[in-house]
Write a structure and sequence with these properties.
about 150 residues, mainly alpha, Arc Repressor Mutant, subunit A, 5 helices, about 50% helix
Length: about 150
Amino acid sequence: MQAPDLDTAPTTDLPPNVYSAACPTRLILDRVGDKWAVLLLGLLTEAPRRFNELRRSVGGISQKMLSQTLKSLERDGLVRREVIATVPVTVEYSITALGVTLAEAVEHLRRWAEHNLADVQAAQQRYDSALASGAGGPRKPHPQRD
């Protein structure tokens, strides 16, 4: 799936409100919520890397998805693409100053995920077991509050 285009977001003179459907900040949050973008930014904070090095480092990413994600990150000003005149031509990707600020923010989420992985998996197992045994059953809607 191709990343959203930040240029197609509606523009407004109102201050950003991420809870508004028309707010362009949602498109930026889509990037933050994209696992491939997060993983690539994390790797690029360590050192600039070539395309194939990134592909080998990020398990499960296809060549097409890697290419699309890098283009989106470059377009958003988070990654810089440099063509090096060699035979064959070499392309190297590095993180920009803006990308570093995002990578630093996302690093906290990565640490949280690693720290809480066992608890989340245990909760998923409890939920799935309850659902399978019928104890989870259909959920009753919560009464509306005013």
